[in-house]
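Copper resistance protein B
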Amino acid sequence: MKPLVGIFIAAVATPALAQQDHGAAVQQAPADPHAQHQMDEQSADPHAGHAMPPKPSEPTDPHAGHQMPSAPATDAHHAHAGHEPGIPDPPGGPPSAAALGGPAHAADAIFGAATMAPAREVVRKEHGDIKSGMILIDQLEAVIGKGKDGYAWNAQGWYGGDIDRLWFKTEGESRFGESLESAEVQALWGRALDPWWNLQAGVRHDFRTGPDRSYAVLGVQGLAPYWFEVDGALFLSDKGDVTARFEAEYDQRLTQKLILQPAAELNFSAQDVPELGIGSGLSTAELGLRLRYQFVPEFAPYVGVKYERAFGDTADFRRAQGEKAGGWKFLIGIRSWF
């Protein structure tokens, strides 16, 4: 009986002792919240347990862990393709003589001249050989002054490419209700000397109340520094008379649409031409001032004044015909182009 009682007491006491031991263990547990996790004995690194790259030799380098060049680049251009440390940049300046010593058309050696010639012609036409034209009516005006009022015109135009062009010019004047007093027409070939100037040569024919004249023409026309438009020409008539003309004008923009244009014209003669009323030396001079309003670039009405004066024998010829040597005129006109 006693053995059975002892076994019963041992069975009852064992769970109680186990519970007491567990409570003691709880009381002795560390305060670390990660105590139940497997920690690295040598580091409290939060990345413990993760696969990490080998520790770099210089842990302060921000690029640690990245694949880096074996040696730092000392040349500022090292990062550009085709540059190596120690190799300088190619020298500047024009190409060497060897670069210009080859054949003019190297592609002919591969494709043949018969094939490349038409191809070069297509490229030439598509890059600079475009034909275009323009007609400028610079002055079409009524002239109001003492005596009978009249009208005058000055126009020019061209057709061609960048280098060679066909030009025409015309100007004249008369009085309202009377036959044509004077008019001239020029047909010229123009050759570009540079981006600013053109050489012009051709013929001119005058229609007037007196005898007609035909001339050979040689002149230049272009844009001078400070945007002065200049036109100068020499004339040799079929009678051997030599005359010259110089014209200049300047467009001063007061606003985007309001433009003030001063202009000057000087005419010279190498000899007296009594039948035309022209004296030697400076024969006539004209100064004009026109103020135009440009509604659109192609259409601009204007008002203005001009002063014309004859000199020397030219003035004497005019007085002999009952005319004045010079005077002021008021102008109303239109400038247009297309």
